[in-house]
Design goal:
single chain; 427 residues; mainly alpha; Zincin-like; Serine Threonine Protein Phosphatase 5, Tetratricopeptide repeat; three-stranded mixed β-sheet; two-stranded antiparallel ribbon; 22 helices; 66% helix
């Protein structure tokens, strides 16, 4: 999966009005960006929506992504694939991806802005088995999507353009089709329905919400530069192009090939023009941190955090820099930042790992052991989780909140261990 503050915020901004129009509590719907070049999006595990990077990079406008989100929201609201959703509703994100994509291996890279988890295995058969909708369900999701777009005053033209983009794929063999076509059967009737709606809706000529297209361009530039070799990046975002998107992409491209001397002027120029953009500052902080300029990185990350205090990834990276500084006066701040990051992202083993380090640096070995136990549980290592939970329990009064947390981890680890043994016996 891709973790990135800017991309997640943009997709959330696109989605929230749609979720509300569907009668869903927006905060209950979790959105995940999957590092995969194929053009696909799907819902699974109840109210979890997965969007491939390939869908974003192949989109021509924010409105096209919004149209796909509206359609997938129709599947959530309609309870389609409910049996699969029920089976996966209590599963972790990595477990869901493992089930759907055919064996997922999460690999923490520790490289700030865009972290990766690499999905491996039989996607074609998995999408057929887990994500195949009937034509009736597809039509229902289309009608729901059109309703949500009308309720929010948005054009359905993006959804129509997306369908037209996929239209020719029905003639291809299943192995050559994008996964979206395999799991979402596309018919001429579906396309005609959306085209008729566009012709008759009062909202068809409405422009995207203010700022959406600008954000879309930045998101695509960032993703392209992080996911493609430098040579491709500069062919698409040429040095002669002085647009914000082009300079952003080239700053990332130069940073990725370790040319801070070329990357820094590009990002510094963007920061001068847009001093209140937290994502430009976040990228600058990442560049400085990875080139060993820790104190400078702390200053830049602190400013980004001031501009966007509820961004867990920025809080996490600020904490990492504070820990790397080896300055004991910053350890309490690092703990505060990591706990704030975990408040919004309890499933991050990465955050628990660094929280354990922060507590250890402060000499709080009980809480350090608790964090290590949480990390091990998330990584599917029940024996390690039980060991650290046991060590943590020795540091706290029986019946205290921390002692109860250690007991909860121990019980969860025991259940995880039993589940692993059952799976091994079934194989």
């Amino acid at each position: 999966m891709i973790r990135d503050s800017e991309i997640e915020r943009i997709i959330r901004a696109y989605s929230t009005p749609i979720f509300k129009a569907a009668g869903l509590k927006a905060s209950d719907v979790k959105i995940f960006i999957v590092k995969d070049n194929s053009l696909n999006a799907f819902v699974a595990g109840g109210q979890k929506m997965f969007i491939n990077t390939g869908l974003i990079l192949n989109s021509d406008s924010a409105n096209q992504i919004i149209g796909v989100i509206a359609h997938e929201t129709g599947h959530i609201a309609g309870g389609h694939l409910s049996r699969v959703h029920d089976a996966l509703s209590k599963s972790s994100t990595s477990t869901i991806l493992s089930a759907i994509i055919g064996g997922a291996a999460a690999v923490a890279t520790g490289r700030g802005d865009v972290g990766a988890a690499i999905a491996l295995g039989g996607q074609i058969s998995a999408t057929r088995n887990f994500l195949a909708y009937s034509r009736t369900q597809e039509a229902s999701a289309d009608h729901a999507a059109l309703s949500y777009l009308d309720k929010t005053g948005q054009s359905a033209r993006g959804l129509m353009e997306f369908m037209q983009k996929l239209g020719d794929q029905e003639l291809l063999s299943p192995a050559q089709q994008d996964p979206y076509v395999r799991s979402h059967p596309l018919t001429r009737d579906r396309i005609t329905t959306v085209e008729n709606h566009v012709q008759n809706s009062d909202h068809s000529e409405n422009p995207s919400a203010a700022g959406f297209e600008r954000m879309h361009g930045l998101m695509k530039a960032k993703l392209y530069a992080f996911l493609n070799p430098y040579g491709r990046t500069i062919r698409v975002y040429k040095a002669s192009d002085q647009s914000v998107n082009s300079r952003y992409a080239r700053a990332i491209g130069e940073y990725r090939r370790q040319r801070l001397d070329l990357a820094a002027p590009l990002i510094d120029g963007l920061i001068r023009e847009f001093p209140d953009n937290p994502y430009f500052l976040e990228l600058k902080g990442q560049m400085l941190f990875e080139h060993g300029r820790i104190q400078d990185a702390i200053i830049v990350y602190t400013r980004a955090n001031q501009l966007l205090p509820d961004a867990p990834l920025i809080r996490r990276d600020l904490a990492r820099a504070q820990l790397e500084s080896k300055d004991p006066t910053l350890y309490d701040d690092a703990v505060d930042n990591l706990e704030a990051a975990l408040f919004d992202d309890r499933e991050s083993a990465f955050n628990w790992h660094f929280l354990a380090i922060a507590h250890g640096r402060r000499g709080d070995m009980g809480r350090s052991s608790l964090a290590l136990a949480e990390e091990a549980l998330l990584k599917g290592k029940p024996e390690v989780a039980k060991f650290h939970a046991g060590r943590a329990a020795q540091h706290f009064t029986r019946g205290s909140r921390e002692w109860l947390q250690s007991e909860d981890i121990r019980l969860a680890a025991a259940e995880q261990e039993r589940a692993q043994k059952r799976r091994q016996q079934q194989q």
